[in-house]
Amino acid sequence: MLLSATPPPGPRPAQELRLREEAARHRGLTPPRTHPLASITWLGPAASNPALAYRVTGDRAHLDESRRWIEAVVRLPHWGRAHMPDHDLDAGWLLHHLSLTLRWIGDDLPEEVEAMLRYKLLLQGRRMYEFAVASEGSWWSSSYWQNHNWICHAGLATAGYVLGKEEWTGRAKENLGTVLDLMPPDGSHAEGVVYWRYGVPFLAAHLDLLQEAEGVDWWERGGFLSSTFRYRLHQTAPGFAFNVDHGDCHDRRSGHSAGLYYRLAARYGIAEAQWMGDLASGELLWKEASESGVRPGILPEAYLEYLWYDPSVRAARPTETHAFFPDLGLLAARTGWDDDATLVSFKASPGGGHTAWETSAKHRAERGWETLNQGHHHPDSGSFVLVSQGEFLAVDEGYSNRKQAAHHNLLLVDGQGYADEGRYHVYEGVPYERQARQRDVLADAEGGWAHATAEIAAMYDPGLGVRRLDRTLVFTPSGRLVLLDLAEAEEARAWTFLLQTDRPTEPGPDGSRLIRSGAATALVRRFAPHDASVTCEVTEVEANPTSSTPELRLTRTLHTLRATTARSRDGLFLTALTPGGAPGAEQIACTDGHGVTFAETGESVLLSPAARRIRSPRVSADAAAVLIRAGEEPYVVGCTRLELDGVVLLDAPEPYTGKVG
Asked: Alpha-carbon dihedral of residues 111, 114, 119, 121, nearest 10 degrees?
């Protein structure tokens, strides 16, 4: 598709219109005569989109426009200025786009322009290739789980195929095979949604090039590409415009790639991806383009939308509401997809996810290589994001250079977050044993329940002597949240519960707190401990999201609700969050375990994640959780025996998770 500029058969009027508009978008701009300090990635598509538009329409105005940008780019002595000139993202982007431009319109360019472009691509490709060889085992050359690796190798591959440099394509192909084998088969991505949409299109482009140039079909290899749309889908906020911002996210708008949606839809027959592509390139396009903090952004992807759109693929609006991605320990559940629906996203895993953590440890031990370069992964295991009524209520920090657990909806021990935090590469050099994980996961779309327990004790300084710090999160079918935090330490510690919001929470007369964002609300009810010290503080987060533009700064102001216990060897927080502000949550009197009921919805949550023994007026169970909704069959987690209202519903030799009855 890419090399031959040949899309799947069938009409594509909307995609052609997008291409023609994008091809003309820069006509009022003057190409730079010297290298700007900021990133120049956008100069590549400034040439390639008009080149493709000329191929499609025959309009020589597009040819002239492409030539204008070609002449400017090839005169720059280096591609990239502020950070790693010729050896990083600027060079990768330009190699990809300018090589395609040469392939598409080289024969129609003046001879001297074509020769100048070819020479420049040979020069820049050689620089990129030599750097990749020299830096093997460090930085992006062998950083298999991140966007720099994918983009730079895809750029090198594109240039290699166009210029006939088999040494380049061979090295890029070997790297691509390794990446596909090592990426998690559940499709999740530790860098977060923004870097998913920035980097994964280049994996797809590389696969496209490989198949067209060599006849090698690796689209099914490893399973990541076939599953990754589902990951992206479940990190979409209700209403589809915004994204859940786990990991480094410049903002909540930067997340859509219509071109990538179309390619995944075409290859795997994913109707929901086709639908999302239509939405992203249509209704959401200009909001995404204007409000996104990621550059070059969605508009330059017009060439991908045109070449990757397959009109024969059926489009269907997403309906799946619950998903769990085990590699990243990511649980996502929602009440629906409409604007006012409620969504929670809850995660816990080792740095980079289980696969990256395990494999990179082997690389370090066996080869002396450092392959886990996860600067965009945060100290956020056990944290969650809550969206409801069209607004973000419990929020994440977004992009950060000095990453801290205190910027997330987490817990502090004696005021301390994770060990070795407060830096960009927050997992670099930490012991292999320092891993978080999820257990006891239930994600049942039919019943509407979601449950998981994040084990995060290992993430804290060993000197604190934390033996247990488990967070259990339950999402009810109506969108209520129940959190149970259980903590144990060798010595008495002060335990602090953190909740991040966009506006200060408002205190209620009964000790509750009201979260307000726009017209949306949620009521926070803390049932334990009763004697916590509660404050609300301002937390400022500042970051530079790209080393290629040193002067760029992102800032976000969080309002942090802090509840701190008296010093004790044991800590326990039992908290309910009710979207809409309804005061319906009440504690259930339990002789064993802990419970919360919501009278308004007839939902009850009973928890005992450690002892697995629940005794209440209605329930006697040996289980991690019993989840009840009036008029429906109950759900259990890790249950061997359940007696409800005097009737034994389950008696099993092995722990069972799911619906009973």
From this structure: 180
Bridge partners, 385 (sequence order): 345
Round to whole Å and give the CA distance between 561 and 175: 45
Strands 554-564 and 533-543: antiparallel
The pLDDT of residue 542: 86
pLDDT at 521 over 70: yes
Q: Report d(CA 545, CA 555) in Å as an integer.
A: 10
* 493 close to 502: Cβ distance less than 8 angstroms: no
Residue 565 has pLDDT above 80, yes or no: yes
Residue-level pLDDT at 610: 98
CA distance 126 to 118: 12
Backbone phi and psi for residue 550, each to the nearest 5 degrees, phi listed first: -60, -30
Residue with tokens 């604190």: 464
Question: Residues 589, 596: contact at Cβ < 8 Å?
Answer: no
The HSE-up count of residue 355 (CA atoms within 13 Å, CB side) is 21
Estimate to the nearest angstrom the gap between the alpha carbon of 302 and the chain centroid.
Answer: 23
Angle of helix 89-105 relative to helix 60-74, nearest 10 degrees, comes to 140
Region 337-364: mean pLDDT is: 97
**Which three-class secondary structure string do you get for 458-526?**
HHECHHHCEEEEEEEEEECCCCCEEEEEEEEEEEEECEEEEEEECCCCEECCCCCEEEEECCEEEEEEE
CB 549 within 8 A of CB 357: no
Residue among 608, 603, 648 nearest 629 (CA): 603
pLDDT tier at 374, thresholds 50, 70, 90: confident
Within 8 A by CB and 6+ apart from 41, the residues are: 89, 90, 93, 94, 295, 296, 548
Residue 449 and residue 461 in contact, taking contact as beta carbons nearer than 8 Å:
no
Degrees, nearest 5: CA angle 621-625-626? 65
The one-character DSSP state at 610 is T
- 216 — pLDDT class (breaks 50, 70, 90): very high
Q: Is the predicted pLDDT of residue 548 greater than 70, yes or no?
A: no
Residue with tokens 């410049």: 250
